[in-house]
Amino acid sequence: MVSLGNTKLLSIEIGDQCNLAGEHMKCPISIRKHNKEYGALTIEDIIVVIHDAIKLGFRGMVGFQYYNEPMINSY
């Protein structure tokens, strides 16, 4: 079983575009592969991810990012 007990940060990208992605080729937006079969993350999807991480021992911080820029950190 996987343990996330040593994981300090769970970072969730909630944006799908970046106005500088074409200039910065290592930007996660530029290199990320999109699977359109699943569609965009919903709030419910994000809540499930966080709850599943907690079940696996995660006790760190959750960071939500838009355009790969930090927005909110919560416990």
Provide a quick synopsis of the model:
The protein has 75 residues and is an alpha+beta fold. It is built from 2 helices and 3 strands.
* Helical residue percent band: 10-25%
The shape is: globular
Sketch the topology as an H/E string, one letter per element.
EHHEE
Strand segment tally:
3
- N-end to C-end Cα span: 24 Å
Spatial extent as radius of gyration: 14 Å
- Number of helical segments? 2
Contiguous runs where pLDDT drops below 50 for at least 5 residues: none
Largest sheet, in brief, is:
3 strands, mixed
The percent range for strand residues is 15-25%
* Average pLDDT taken over every residue: 78
Question: Which class best fits the helix and strand makeup?
Answer: alpha+beta
Cross-sheet strand order for the largest sheet: 1-2-3
Explain how this protein is built.
The protein has 75 residues and is of the alpha+beta class. The chain contains two helices and three strands, in the order E-H-H-E-E. The chain has a three-stranded mixed beta sheet with strand order 1-2-3, with no helix packed on it. A hairpin with a 2-residue loop joins strand 2 and strand 3. It is globular and about 40 Å long. The two termini are 24 Å apart.
